[in-house]
Design goal:
Blueprint: E1 5-7, H1 9-38, H2 47-71, E2 73-75, H3 78-81, E3 91-96, E4 102-108, E5 119-121, H4 125-130, E6 138-143, E7 146-156
Helix pairs in contact: 1-2
């Protein structure tokens, strides 16, 4: 059996919304484009037809991937999110011990990770180092840039990662 895909409720809702959009809006639109392009005649040199078929292939692949991911989804429970230490759904504020710079990350499942938005995977080097840690703990994080040490200043379990939207 395949590994479960761990995610927050918000992450699952986002994937479900994307799947709904692809199945109920984009797929019918592409099928219409294909029908209209076929009506133009010769398909060998029909750019609109070829482009629509490429888009259809992409959409069908994404739909299958989303269905597979959602089929293996395991949403983190409130109890798991309310544990003492850092877990999926926790927002962690930490200070770099050498530079004093402060950074904040929200720990999410791998499919929800978006480092540009401060959402890091529990399976990433930073996520792994933080999981289970408590406020005040010093953590050593090994990344491609080297070994860094941080102190956890705050852990919030405000459940903003569980809100849909």
């Amino acid at each position: 059996m395949a590994e479960p895909v761990i995610m927050t409720a918000a992450g699952k809702a986002k994937l479900e919304a994307e799947l709904d959009e692809l199945v109920n809006v984009r797929r019918p639109a592409v099928l219409l484009r294909i029908r209209e392009a076929k009506a133009l005649g010769d398909l060998r040199e029909n750019f609109d037809f070829q482009d629509a078929k490429r888009e259809q292939a992409f959409l069908e692949g994404r739909i299958q991937a989303l269905k597979e991911t959602l089929g293996r989804a395991r949403v983190v429970s409130e109890e798991e999110m309310n544990s003492e230490g850092v877990g999926i759904g926790s927002t962690v504020e930490m200070v770099h011990l050498e530079t004093g710079s402060v950074c904040t990350y929200t720990i999410v499942g791998a499919v929800e990770a978006d480092p540009a938005k401060g959402k890091i995977s529990n399976a990433s080097p930073v996520g792994k180092a933080l999981m289970g840690q408590t406020e005040g703990a010093t953590v050593t994080i090994t990344t491609p840039r080297g070994v860094q040490q941080y102190r956890i200043q705050a852990i919030r379990r405000n459940h903003e990662t569980t809100a849909v939207g």
